[in-house]
Hints:
CATH class: Mainly Beta
Number of helices: 0
CATH architecture: Sandwich
Strand content: over 45%
CATH superfamily: Immunoglobulins
Radius of gyration: 14 Å
Helix content: under 10%
Amino acid sequence: TPPSIIKKTGESVDKEIRCSHSIPNHDVILWYKQDENRTLQLLGYLNLNFVTVERDVKKTISFEGDGRTHSDLTVSDLTADDSAVYFCAARYAQFHLCSANSKQCFSRGTNQFVHICSFKYQ
Length: 122
């Protein structure tokens, strides 16, 4: 996954954000979005090959893959509200979130560009 993606509003981030892991018995990958206020929003999860997307983001968020190994995130029809840090987590009996200093990743959305940062689970 690239550390940063810059796109114009209306464009899409099509499978450019990838999460991968090799932890045995962790069959679920969860996707989160963290906005500039550092609020985490669950986007959905991939349980094995079964996708569940949260209702409020279903029109613009999708992902695919295999929860045992990897998932690719797509964000369609970008708006300034999509400027965020995107996290993934692998789950078995507990959540595992990556930690990163993301202060430099946020940029105020404009009418022309959206700045997306992502961090790969490790």
